[in-house]
Amino acid sequence: LHIEAHSFPTRRSSDLFPVTILEQTIYKETTSRRTRENLVMSNLKPIRVLVVEDEPQIAASIKSSLSNADIECYLALSAKNFLQQLAGIAPDLCIIDLGLPDLDGMDLIIEVKAQTNASILILSGRGQVKDKVSGLETGADDYMVKPFDHAELIARIKSIVRRKPASRNSTPLIEIACFEGWQFNLSNNPSIVTGK
Fold it and tell me: How many other β-carbons are positioned within 10 Å of the β-carbon of residue 157?
């Protein structure tokens, strides 16, 4: 029995799956994610914060500290004035004092969540665990107790905004790789046949 050896052409993985397209798409997805996380930290769009604090001295000190950190800061001394400014300012983050003269801070948080997608940081003299739990469960992203350190406040603001998802008004990223008549969605993994 004589068996002739035949050489068969081998197909590289890149012939089946164009690595360059996948690499470019993954790179684009990764870069875009980093851009979304850091956009509000760049000079193109400074962080915009709306503060409601009924103590004028505390409000002024917060505004001074945030302005020195290149954060746009707007002040309100009452819940009514805060709500009047909310829509026009469109803040990235709201700092809310719970002990307001005209509306409880917890109710104000509910109003903010209903009207905007702004993040919320509670800054209050109420330091009991039940108050912190209630504030976070109501919708706040963080909770600080007075007296507070201004450097820590700024760090927490930047951390919250950095973690914030892309704006609902931004154009969603299409994360799709195409090869051999197929489309592969990197965000949810379905494969779609586009043609033969």
Answer: 22
